[in-house]
Write a structure and sequence with these properties.
By secondary structure, the protein is of the alpha+beta class.
Length: 858
């Protein structure tokens, strides 16, 4: 597990910060209050009135955030990023003799700021002469042709996003307590693409990026190890899937075996049948890292894009059917299999639904009770799964085919294709900024540029007039010079804030920088909006793990189109990769923010601000947010009481939504154009649908539960991933001290009720598969216990699948419908054995079903 950022003393994954939920501010990441009272923000709001956020003089919202949320401490210190350095740029730093003797260890340049990553190659050489350490490019990569080449021409080659890391003090040469990281980018002929990864509707691996001005085509390279790059594909499009990779294996041997089996049955063989996919995605031996390079006319090229790691979604990438051909003995149409095991790129196994629509069937003239079916696998490219059934005549299976077709349709009805918009973050700069040298400091407020930027991006116009506190001229303290020979003007050309130890870094007076002025203006607007929504209710449902996460969450809820993140306030915001991770977490875990166009996120390096594009009209969304919060409070108050246990609260909310809400199948069948969505579609994918209209899809169920459960004092999160290979969203909720998995969408099922109510990770293995990208670190939320599971609590669970026979027989005496949970990992063959034992025992079973680890008989 990659680790970088630290919250308090807790290390969390590079994917963001969902570590420990503490405190009383909604129970979601707030900082502990030493006197044991309610959080400061909540307490002050109570004193000032129910809907007020009347805090301190100055910037009250930011003051409240800083007071109630711990700053994101890191295992490295950050400087503000440097952008568009010349391709041959050399860093120079005045240094003492002791540091000079250790110059090779003072600085390193990497293509990652994850300093714990095992494979990370330095791309620099250091020299020390006349009191100056120079850091120059060395051994960098140039992507040109089939493979990346080592480049030693004194430039940074194709490298684009790099990180200068200082490990030792420039005076003494002693190792620093925390390394200092300065992100920087290199200027190239063309702008480097910002690349994201995801899956398409068939779960093929996808890379996606924005069109680069001047680009004629794009080259996709895979990095193997710490520095070897191999060309995988070229395209003129801005998206490519793994089927186009030139190393996409066709698994010739497997296909030949399969074709031989089909031919032996007399079935016509489709030469283009697919029994393997994503086989070009290899995550072994440090492979599976991808970059994209833009190529233009006359030899113009960009630097390499950001690096994406296929490991992050490997559990969601099917690679092959575990058993592509199976033979079963059946006694009734109910025995026709529903699921097939599919192996994923990471080696895990996921259950997927067999798609019998349009399947080929073959009957054996000499064996009337035998039939072979060649079927597809839903939500995949697989069209060559073969199942041979012994025990029923061909005509009987065909006559009763509607049974398993209807069963399949029910399972797939509330599962959408897994295709998602790919999140990316694009770095932009003002024209004047991009033309300046890296060593230049902003000493005057660029009024015209700032005004133009703000009028385009902020929801309300921000005037040039600012308060006295933020109109002072930008000033900086001079860094303490090492006691060495005074460097020449040329030797001090590097940025003064780069390379200094934390105590030597120039300090900036809060409120004086252009970015902080913008932040103060936006903060005032956000605070006003939060007050209008009802600060007490917002605080109850807000989720964050750090001051940066809380700031982003408030901005998203308030529909701010600009989110300033100055490094003087949030040092870790210097990493745009981390910014994207925190933003996606804030977006997913604070559902009243509505829908974002996550492919249009931009970061302005001059203003140190994110630009956000909302899909829904902001005023309309804010009106609905207020109604969502009011309804969530009403629901929580009507079905939950403070004296209730967590289990009883979860059950009460689950029953409320299960009984009162309905699934919106119309929205599932809608062709999606993200820029022209209907109001009903937007509602169905937001808390508003389930809370206020009583209909919606899985997002609406999950997000409605988040709001109502947090209003009821529960800790809950949203989880995004796949169900049977289709896109899905569900919850995790803390129940009397233990985290559990909850999927209200599928609990609202006429055949198997509450099949996913407080289940464990073991019980959902291979069924609900979480994705990475919207979660930081799921480790603190592991559902390790099943003792809060609904059927276990109600005495309807067994530890051996055959023990279910006696329990079912006993329940059938009083009820014509019985559902019992069997142990995790029980196979369909074992369930069939159980059904046969029930029949032998005298049970009159009309229908039987097995899903989510539950056996259901009628």
């Amino acid at each position: 597990m990659k680790k970088r950022f630290v919250y308090g003393k807790k290390f969390v994954s590079v994917m963001a910060a969902m570590s420990i939920m503490v405190g009383t501010l909604s129970g979601c990441g707030a900082k502990d209050v030493s006197d044991g009272s309610d959080s400061a923000m909540t307490a002050i709001a109570d004193e000032a009135g129910e809907d007020a956020l009347d805090l301190t003089d100055g910037n009250s919202l930011l003051a409240a955030i800083k007071q109630n949320y711990a700053a994101a401490s890191v295992n490295a210190d950050y400087n503000k990023g440097l952008y568009d350095l010349d391709s041959d740029y050399v860093f120079e730093f005045s240094a003492g003799e002791e540091a000079g003797e250790e110059c090779y260890d003072v600085f390193q340049v990497y293509d990652t700021d994850d300093l714990d990553r095992e494979f990370k190659r330095p791309y620099n050489t250091n020299t020390y002469e006349d009191g100056v350490i120079k850091v120059a490019p060395d051994g960098v990569i140039k992507l040109d042709g089939e493979n990346g080449q080592d480049c030693n021409d004194g430039t940074w080659g194709s490298m684009n996003q790099l990180y200068l890391v200082q490990y030792r003090d420039l005076k003494t040469g002693e190792e620093l307590a925390n390394p200092i990281i300065t992100p920087f980018t290199v200027k190239h002929d063309l702008k480097s693409p910002a690349v994201g990864q995801g899956v398409d509707e068939k779960n093929n691996y996808v890379l996606k990026w924005k069109d680069v001005e001047g680009a004629k085509e794009y080259a996709v390279y895979e990095r193997i190890g710490d520095s070897a790059y191999t060309l995988r594909a070229t395209t003129t499009d801005t998206m490519i899937n793994s089927r186009s990779f030139n190393n996409q294996a066709e698994t010739e041997d497997l296909l030949e075996l399969f074709k031989n089996d089909l031919q032996n049955t007399g079935m016509e063989v489709d030469e283009e049948g697919i029994s393997a996919m994503n086989s070009g995605i290899d995550i072994e031996d440090e492979a599976g890292y991808y970059v994209v390079v833009a190529i233009g006319d006359q030899g113009k090229v960009s630097g390499m894009s950001n690096i994406v790691d296929a490991r992050d979604i490997a559990a969601n990438l099917p690679t092959h059917i575990k058993d592509y051909s199976v033979e079963l003995d059946i006694t009734s149409i109910e025995d026709v299999p529903t699921y097939v095991d599919v192996e994923m790129v990471d080696g895990s196994v996921t259950q997927m639904i067999i798609d019998y629509h349009g399947a080929q069937a073959y009957q054996y003239p000499d064996e009337p009770n035998k039939i072979t079916i060649k079927a597809h696998v839903a939500n995949t490219e697989f069209d060559s799964f073969m199942v041979t059934l012994n025990g029923m005549k061909y005509e009987d299976v065909v006559a009763q085919k509607d049974y398993f077709l209807d069963r399949e349709d029910k399972l797939l009805a509330n599962i959408r294709p897994a295709e998602v918009d790919v999140p990316t973050i694009e770095i932009t700069t003002d024209d004047a900024t991009s033309e300046s040298t890296p060593s230049e400091e902003v000493t005057e407020e660029p009024e015209e540029e700032i005004t133009e930027e703000i009028t385009e991006e902020v929801t309300e116009e921000i005037t040039e007039e600012v308060t006295e506190e933020v109109t002072e001229e930008v000033t900086e303290e001079e860094p303490q010079e090492p006691e060495v020979e005074e460097p020449t003007e040329e030797e001090t050309s590097a940025p003064t804030e780069v390379g200094e130890a934390p105590s030597e870094m120039p300090t900036k007076t809060p409120g004086n920088t252009t970015a902080e002025k913008l932040m103060n203006e936006v903060s005032a607007d956000v605070e006003n909006t939060i007050n209008n929504l009802g600060a007490d209710k917002v605080n109850q449902v807000l989720y964050a793990n750090s001051d940066l996460g809380a700031w982003m969450a408030y901005c998203l809820i308030a529909q701010s189109e600009v989110i300033p993140v100055p490094t003087t306030v949030f040092p870790e915001a210097a990493s745009t990769e981390y910014l994207l991770e925190v933003l996606l977490e804030a977006y997913r875990q604070n559902p009243t923010s509505g829908l974002l166009d996550i492919g249009e996120i931009k970061y302005n390096s001059e203003l140190e601000a994110l630009k956000i594009v909302y899909i829904e009209d902001c005023d309309t969304r804010l009106d609905k947010t207020k109604l969502e919060l009011e309804k969530a409070a009403e629901v929580a108050g009507s079905v939950c009481e403070d004296s209730m246990s967590d289990y009883d609260k979860v059950f009460a909310l689950n029953e409320y939504f299960r009984i009162n809400a309905s699934y919106d199948f119309d929205s599932m069948s809608t062709d999606v154009d993200i820029h022209s969505l209907s109001e009903s579609f937007l509602d169905a994918h937001a808390p508003y649908g389930i809370l206020c209209n009583n209909y919606g899809v899985c997002e609406s169920y999950s997000e409605a539960f988040i709001l109502a459960s947090r209003m009821a004092g529960l800790e809950s999160i949203a989880e995004v991933g796949t169900l049977f290979g289709g896109g899905h969203e569900w919850n995790r909720v803390k129940v009397d001290g233990s985290w559990c998995v909850l999927d209200i969408t599928n609990n609202d099922n006429d055949d198997i009720t509450n099949g996913l109510l407080n289940v464990s990770d073991e019980q959902i293995a291979g069924t609900l598969v979480p994705s990475k990208g919207y979660m930081v670190d799921t480790t603190p939320f592991a559902a390790d216990s099943s003792d809060k599971e609904f059927y276990y609590v109600n005495g309807l669970a067994v530890t051996d699948y055959m023990d279910a026979k006696d329990l079912i027989m006993e329940q059938l005496k009083n009820d014509s419908k019985v559902t019992v949970r069997v142990p995790a990992g029980t196979t369909e063959e074992e369930v069939k054995e159980l059904f046969q034992a029930l029949v032998q025992e005298g049970a009159s079973i009309q229908t039987g079903n097995y899903a989510f680890g539950l056996v259901h008989v009628e």
